[in-house]
Amino acid sequence: MKPQVKTSFTARAVGKVDEAHLLRPDQLEELRLLTNAEMDSASPFAAILAGQPTLNRQLRMGMFAALDQRIATRFTIKPMDLAESAAYLKHHLALAGRDEPLFADDATARLHRVSNGLPRALNNAAVAALIAAAADGKDLIDDACAKKAVAELTRD
Prior knowledge:
- The protein is mostly helical.
- The protein is built from seven helices and two strands, in the order βαβαααααα.
- The chain has helices spanning 25-35, 54-59, 65-69, 82-95, 105-115, 119-135, 143-154, and strands at residues 13-17, 45-49.
- Strand 1, helix 1 (25-35) and strand 2 form a beta-alpha-beta unit.
């Protein structure tokens, strides 16, 4: 006689919301209601919210306290340091097929500072520096190009 093995699988829906910091209050309330079903580990719904740091601030507001309390795990991507920013730029240039350096060290440092090590801001600053270099007919993005990029990005 074989021992009986009982197994039970619970189906769980998982939803991912990117750019969650852009959700309106009524949409966050809908998420809270979805997670309200059983309010324990057997809940049939799980959500992954991905967004900018403003999402944390928004969730900590009193009106979203119930949703904030249901968040089991939080993860924040820390800003890159200068070496990581340089490697990030080099990696993206390699993906585009460029093997030799395109950014001078001082330009990389300036773009890192203005972006605060945040990947999206670094991308925007690097593109602006590329445009400045192209406008000046330069093959290497130097600090002058980076300065022009910063001026372009910070003007109103």
